[in-house]
Amino acid sequence: GRANLIFNLKNRGVLSSVRVVAAALTDGARAALGLSPAYIAICQPNDKGKMSFMKLPPGEYASYLSKHPPMQDPPKAYLGGWQNRAPARAGLPIVGITKARPILRMKEVTAPVL
Asked: How many beta carbons lie within 10 A of that of residue 24, not counting itself?
């Protein structure tokens, strides 16, 4: 919500925050039109200019990625199929545009749930 937006503006900078919000709004419009998602990185080191949900110091970034061991083949793939990306529309609740309420969609889940 609002507190998170203020935190991000202070810690990420205005331009970086605006880029994430713009990507989230664009992808939200894509969702409304039934188009495939546009993805952005979940995390990136602070020293890179790439857009991501989380900006981490280089040491924390390495630690974060160490939780997802890479597979031998293909390169840049992680065990379990984890990818360092998420649909940009996931940023909509972060800026207070929508409220994330996944529990309301549980009836649509067809896989076994514990």
From this structure: 24
How many other CB atoms sit within 10 Å of the CB of residue 20?
20
Sequence-distant (6+) residues with CB within 8 A of 106 are 113
**Where are any strands of DSSP class E within the chain?**
39-45, 52-56, 86-87
CB within 8 A of 28, min separation 6: which ones?
Answer: 89, 92, 97, 98
pLDDT in tens, 15-39: 887 888 899 999 989 999 999 999 9
Cα–Cα distance measured from residue 100 to residue 38, given in angstroms and rounded to the nearest whole number? 18
Dist. CA 76–CA 25, nearest whole Å:
29
Q: Are strands 52-56 and 39-45 parallel, antiparallel or unpaired?
A: parallel
What SS3 class is residue 63? helix
The pTM for the full model equals: 0.69
Q: In whole angstroms, give the CA distance from residue 114 to residue 98.
A: 27
Beta-carbon contacts of 100 under 8 Å, excluding residues fewer than 6 positions away, are 93
